[in-house]
Design brief:
CATH class of the largest domain in chain A: Alpha Beta
Number of strands of chain A: 17
CATH topology of the largest domain in chain A: Aldehyde Dehydrogenase, Chain A, domain 1
Number of helices of chain A: 16
Oligomer: homodimer
CATH architecture of the largest domain in chain A: 3-Layer(aba) Sandwich
Strand order of the largest sheet of chain A: 10-9-11-8-7-12-13
C-alpha cells in the first residue's frame, strides 16, 4: 500500500492483469451495467452534485465553474448515451497489426494491447470522469482519476458506481481495483512522480493547468498546452475562399485551441486581400494587430513581438506579411505550438510542400482550422488532442490508449539451430494481418 | 546559436524543414554517395581510427573496448553493405495510414512522417554512427550524435563524410545541417535538457549507461535498461522441449539482454523436470540458484531476494517454484523489466492467457527468449529494442523513427456550415489506405 497515494500497488498490479485477460464481452457487460446503475442511482448522484454546488456557491465560485460542475438529467442522459456509443465501438484490443512466419511453425504477431495504467486529471466537469473511465475500461486499461475538488462528492459517487458494478461477479471477474479516485493535490503531486506505475497522463482543463502537468512529470502527457494556429495565404490564393475560411477559423468559436490566431500573408496578395478581409473581420468584431507592412496597407493596431506567441482565445487576429512560403514556415516553426496550421493556395504542389514542411500535428489546405477535432475527423471517441510527437498526435481516438506487444508462437524452436554453418534459415514470410 | 551545445538552432530548424520536404530519391542519392565516399576516403578513416586506438592503448584501455573501437576494412565493408540495405528499404515517409472522406471534397489523410530531431548517444563503436545516421537520413530525421570520447577522431571523420556529401548540391539540396556531432559530456548533459529541440533519444551501450540517460532526461528514450527475462514452465509442459528451449535461452549467448535469467517452475512438474534440467545446465557450466522449494528437489546454491531482480548476463540461472500460472505472472510483474518473457506449455489456451496477462514487450510460447531481436523478427533494420510502453515496443525497425501527421484537404470548407439547423452533415466514409 502506498500510504499517501492511497493506492494498493499489489492490488493495482493484479487488477491490471485481470483487465488485460478480460474479454470484450465482459468489459461491455460492465459498461452496460454502469449505464443502468447511473440511471438507477440518479437521485443520489444529483443530491451529491447539489452538495458540491452549494459548497461552491458558499465559496462564491464563478458562474462558469458552477455551470461546468452541474450534473443534471441532461448531463446524465448524455453520459449514458456516451457509454452506449463506447460499447458499440470495435474492441481495440487484440488487433493483429503485423504477422510474419519466421520459419515453419514459428509465427510472429504484433498485437494491439492496453497501455496499462492511465492517470487522468481533470477539472470540475464530472461527466469527463464517466467518459474517460468508460474509455479506459473499454480499452482494458486501469485508471487513476483526480477530479476538481469542487466536484468531490459527485466524483466519489460516480466512481462508486463503477466500483460497485465491477465488483458484481455476475458480469465479469475483473473486480474494482482497476479504478482509483484521488482526492488531494498532494496525491496528484505524488502521482506525477510515479513513472514506474502510471504509463500515460491525460490532463483536461485550462492550458495553464495542462502546462503545469507537462512541466512537472516525466510520464508522457497526452494533451496540448497551447494551440497557436496559423493560416498562410499564398500569392495565388482565391480571395473569396480565403476570406470565408479565415472568418470561420477566427470567429466560429474563438475560445478553443483550434481557432486561428495568426494570419501570414504573402506580400504579393496583401494589397488585394487585406482591405476586404479587414471589413469582413470587423463585421464580426475582430481586433486586428498587424506588423508594419500590414499597417502600410490597412489601418489597424500594431502587433508586437509577444503577439506572435500569443494564444488569444478571443476575437483578436495578428497579421504578418511574408516574402515567401519558406518565411511563413520559419515563422510557424519559431512561434507555433505544433497544433494546427493551414495554407490557402490554388496549387496542390504548393499545398503539399507546406503540409510536408510544417511540423505540426494537423496541416490543412483550403479549409478552416476549426475542423481539427476528433468528432469532425470521425474518430468515434475522442480521448484528447495531443501535441506529443511520438505515440499519438493531433485528435486522438481510442487507439491513443493502446500500445502493442510482440507474440511469438513456437514449437520448441531454439536460436542455436539458426547459427553457424548448415544451419536453418529464417523464411520471414509476411502473413495476412487478420 | 546555442553556445555550449555548439548547435545553431535556426540552422537545425531550416535543415529539419529541408529534410522533411526532400524526396526518397534525394535521400537515397546522398546515402549512395556516403557509401562511395567512405570507400574513397578509407585510408584517412583508418588512420584517424589508428590515432584513437593508439591513444586508448596509451591510456591502457581494456581489450574489449579497443576491439569495439577498431574500424578496419571488415567493419567498413559491413557498414557500406548496411547503407546499401537501408537504401533498399521502402520509403517510411508519406505512407497513408488512414484515409477518410469527411464530406464531399473534404479528405482526411493520416500520413507517416519523420519525428524531427533524434539524439543518439553511443559508446565506442564507430560503425554505430554510420548505421544510425543512415537510418535517420533515410527516415527524414535530423540527428545530434555523441560517440564515445575514445573514438573522437574516427567519429569526426565519419561525420565529415556525411556532411561533405550532404553539402554537394548535385545530389540534393538538403545541406549539411541535419547532422551534428557533440564531443563533450557537458554537451550531452545539455542535450538531455533540450526537450524542446530533441524529440527522441536513442542511447546505445551498457545497461548502466542507458539507465543513466533514462533517469536524466524528460525526452522519450528508445532503449531498455534491463533485460530480466523469465521462462514459466507450466504443469503440462513437454519436458524434452522445455530442456532444449531453456538451455538455448540461457546458454546460447548469455551476455545479452534477451538471455534467460529466471526460471519459474510449476510445482507439479518440478520433481520430474529439475533433476534432468540441472544435469543439462551443468554440462554447459551454468550455476543454479534456487529457492527453498527448488532446493528440496535438487542440490544447488540458494537464491536470495536480490537474485529475482538481477540481470546476470552470465551463466547463472535463478529458479523459483510457483503454485500457479498467476503466481508466475505476479512474480514477473514484480521483478521483471518488461522486456521478454516466455511460457512453456502444451495448451494454446494457457499460452494465450499468459501472453495476454504478462505486460512485456515480447511474450513467447514454446521457444527461446533469444528470438526476441529485430533481425530474427525480420524487421529489415533494427533501430533498437525498446521497453517504452508508448510509441515503439520491443525490437524497433525504421518505423520507430517515424510519427504521423493529419493532412486535411478542402475546397474552402468551413465549420459554420456543419452547425445549427439544416446544416451540412459529415459523411465520414473510410477510403482505401494507399
Amino acid at each position: 500500500m502506498n500510504a499517501n497515494l492511497g493506492i494498493d500497488l499489489q492490488k493495482l498490479n493484479i487488477a491490471q492483469k485481470k483487465v488485460a485477460v478480460s474479454t470484450e464481452v465482459e468489459r461491455n457487460k460492465i459498461l452496460n451495467a454502469v449505464a443502468d446503475k447511473l440511471l438507477e442511482r440518479k437521485e443520489e448522484i444529483y443530491s451529491a452534485n447539489l452538495r458540491d454546488i452549494n459548497q461552491s456557491e458558499r465559496e462564491s465560485a464563478a458562474v462558469p465553474l458552477i455551470k461546468r460542475l452541474l450534473f443534471d438529467e441532461v448531463k446524465l442522459l448524455s453520459a449514458v448515451e456516451g457509454i452506449k456509443q463506447i460499447i458499440s465501438l470495435p474492441d481495440p484490443k487484440g488487433r493483429i497489426l503485423e504477422a510474419r512466419e519466421l520459419d515453419e511453425g514459428l509465427i510472429l504477431k504484433r498485437e494491439s494491447c492496453s497501455i496499462g495504467v492511465i492517470g487522468m486529471i481533470f477539472e470540475s466537469r464530472p461527466d469527463a470522469l464517466i467518459q474517460i473511465a468508460a474509455l479506459c475500461l473499454k480499452s482494458g486499461n486501469c485508471i487513476v482519476l483526480k477530479g476538481g475538488s469542487e466536484a468531490a462528492e459527485t466524483n466519489r459517487m460516480l466512481t462508486a458506481v463503477f466500483k460497485e458494478v465491477s465488483n458484481d461477479l455476475s458480469f465479469a471477474s475483473i473486480g474494482s481495483d482497476w479504478i482509483y479516485l484521488l482526492e488531494t493535490r498532494e496525491q496528484v503531486k505524488e502521482m506525477l512522480e510515479f513513472d514506474e506505475y502510471i504509463d500515460l497522463i491525460i490532463p483536461r482543463g485550462s492550458n495553464s493547468f495542462v502546462k503545469y502537468i507537462m512541466s512537472n512529470t516525466t510520464i508522457p502527457v497526452l494533451g496540448h498546452a497551447d494551440g497557436i494556429c496559423h493560416s498562410y495565404i499564398h500569392s495565388d490564393a482565391d480571395i473569396a475562399k480565403t476570406i470565408r475560411v479565415t472568418v470561420d477559423a477566427k470567429c466560429q468559436y474563438p475560445a478553443v485551441c483550434n481557432a486561428l490566431e495568426t494570419l501570414l500573408v504573402h506580400k504579393s496578395i496583401a494589397g488585394k486581400l487585406l482591405p476586404v478581409l479587414k471589413k469582413e473581420l470587423e463585421l464580426e468584431g475582430v481586433e486586428i494587430r498587424g506588423d508594419a507592412e500590414c499597417r502600410s496597407i490597412i489601418n489597424c493596431k500594431s502587433a508586437v513581438e509577444t503577439d506572435w506567441g500569443s494564444e488569444y482565445l478571443d476575437l483578436i487576429l495578428s497579421i504578418k506579411l511574408v516574402e515567401s512560403i519558406d518565411d511563413a514556415i520559419l515563422h510557424i516553426h519559431t512561434y507555433g505550438s505544433g497544433h494546427t496550421d493551414s495554407i490557402l493556395t490554388e496549387s496542390i504542389q504548393t499545398a503539399e510542400y507546406f503540409m510536408n514542411a510544417v511540423d505540426s500535428a494537423d496541416v490543412l489546405w483550403n479549409c478552416s482550422t476549426r475542423f481539427s477535432d476528433g468528432y469532425r475527423y470521425g474518430l468515434g471517441a475522442e480521448v484528447g488532442i495531443s501535441t506529443l510527437k511520438i505515440h499519438a498526435r493531433g485528435p486522438v481516438g481510442l487507439e491513443g490508449l493502446m500500445t502493442y506487444k510482440w507474440k511469438l508462437y513456437g514449437e520448441g524452436h531454439i536460436v542455436s539451430d539458426y547459427t553457424g554453418n548448415g544451419s536453418k534459415k529464417f523464411t520471414h514470410k509476411n502473413l495476412p494481418r487478420e
